[in-house]
From TrEMBL:
Disulphide bridges, residue numbers: C133-C142
Designated name of the protein: Transporter
Phylogenetic placement of the source organism: Eukaryota, Metazoa, Cnidaria, Anthozoa, Hexacorallia
Binding-site residues for Na(+), renumbered to this chain: G27, A29, V30, N34, S274, N306, L371, D374, S375
Bilayer topology term: Multi-pass membrane protein
Subcellular localization, as worded in the UniProt entry: Cell membrane
InterPro entries: Na/ntran_symport (IPR000175), SNS_sf (IPR037272)
Keyword annotations from UniProtKB, A to Z: Cell membrane, Disulfide bond, Glycoprotein, Membrane, Metal-binding, Neurotransmitter transport, Sodium, Symport, Transmembrane, Transmembrane helix, Transport
Principal localisation: membrane
GO molecular function, one term: sodium:chloride symporter activity
PANTHER family associated with the record: SODIUM-DEPENDENT NORADRENALINE TRANSPORTER, SODIUM/CHLORIDE DEPENDENT TRANSPORTER
Length: 376
């Protein structure tokens, strides 16, 4: 009996160039988690020693699944739902589930892009608004680097220093989020945030409206320019006072953390989250390849680029956090945070203390915007 591949290869659009495929995969995999999640997990789980479980999960989980998804799409030349149905009709729900999860993620991811756009817009001012406490949204407890406020001058208890907030914190909670006291308070429509969200969706639509013909070409810029900005931020951060302490704090190994199961769980979750496996996007990207393409090499290349980006991005983060700790007289661990708190509070607070702060704010938030768009 002869066993062969499909007699007729389904007609499907193909990438204009191999570089478009690689850059699209890199842009899809490298996202905001590389900048704000990995450095924190590295600090939390033993510094440089965290690279051992991280590398292990990459080798035994990340790359194999990445390779499987690319190969599945490349061989069957179908999207996620149809590809799994072709493997086994009973597995059709896997592809549908992938699409649903991707849809849910894209909803909240676009909100983060909208936040980045708002910060980018506000950074275009001559003086960034999260640098001082002179704005309408600031409270009496706001204290910036140039203000010497005492509890007595505010008519408050002498322990009110524990309640002091920074301009970046109040800009985030009072200006960007307009945080309420609870979910029962619906509040009003935030027109600035709604406009930014609309712009984010329009940009995403324009990028994907013509399929890989448009997204592949856009990837030449959107997947590479963030690396240029990242290098600029690393060089700038390395010249700041306190940068060395930040890097030392980032890399100092604590091998005792390897005995903690949570360290390995964090490493696995970061690999899956960072490589964007299990969401169907990689199957779609692979489906536009020629069947003879070496997708094994592609999977290894993109996975390694993604993980190196995470590690290098930690230097951009911790040099600035080291500078912030030096400026405030605090320990580095007291200014370290994860997620939006790092990107929209801690990092802006550090930027506000730099010379020519609007320039660095524009570069940083433009980088976040590009990383978010690419991952969409």
């Amino acid at each position: 009996m002869k066993v062969g591949v499909l007699a007729v290869e389904p007609k499907r659009e193909q990438w204009g160039h191999k570089a478009e495929f690689i850059l699209s995969c890199v842009g899809y995999a490298v996202g905001l988690g590389n900048i704000w999640r990995f450095p924190y997990l590295c600090f939390k789980n033993g510094g440089a020693s965290f690279l051992i479980p991280y590398g292990s999960m990459l080798l035994f989980c990340g790359i194999p699944i990445f390779y499987m998804e690319l190969a599945l799409g490349q061989f069957l030349r179908k999207g996620a739902s149809k590809a799994w149905a072709s493997v086994c009709p009973a597995a059709a729900g896997i592809g549908v589930a992938m699409m649903m999860v991707s849809g849910f993620i894209s909803i909240y991811y676009n909100v983060i892009i909208a936040w980045s756009l708002l910060y980018l817009w506000n950074s275009l001012a001559k003086e960034i608004p999260f640098k001082h406490c002179k704005n309408p949204w600031n409270t009496l407890l706001c204290r910036d680097a140039d203000t010497n406020v005492t509890c007595a001058s505010l008519g408050l208890d002498r322990n009110c220093t524990l309640q002091f907030t920074t301009p970046s914190e109040e800009f985030w909670t009072n200006k960007i989020l307009h945080s309420s006291s609870g979910v029962e308070q619906v509040g009003e429509v935030r027109y600035d945030l709604a406009t930014a969200l609309l712009i984010a969706w329009i940009v995403v639509y324009l990028c994907v409206s013509r399929g890989i013909r448009s997204s592949g070409k856009i990837a030449y810029f959107s997947a590479t320019f963030p690396y240029f900005i990242l290098m600029v931020l690393i060089v700038r951060g390395a010249t700041l006072p306190g940068a060395y302490q930040g890097v030392l704090f980032y890399l100092s190994p604590d091998f005792s953390r390897l005995a903690d199961p949570q360290t390995w769980i964090d490493a696995a979750s970061q690999i899956f989250f960072s490589l964007s496996v299990g969401l169907g996007g990689l199957i779609v990207f692979g489906s536009y390849n020629n069947r003879r393409n070496n997708c094994e090499a592609d999977a290894i290349t993109v996975s390694l680029i993604n993980c190196v980006t995470s590690f290098v991005g930690g230097f951009a983060t911790f040099t600035v956090l080291g500078f912030m700790a030096h400026s405030t007289g605090l320990d580095v661990k007291e200014v370290v945070s994860s997620g939006p708190g790092l990107a929209f509070v801690a990092y802006p607070e550090s930027i506000a203390r730099m010379p020519v702060s609007p320039l660095w704010a524009i570069l940083f938030f433009f980088m976040l915007f590009l990383l978010g768009i690419d991952s969409q």
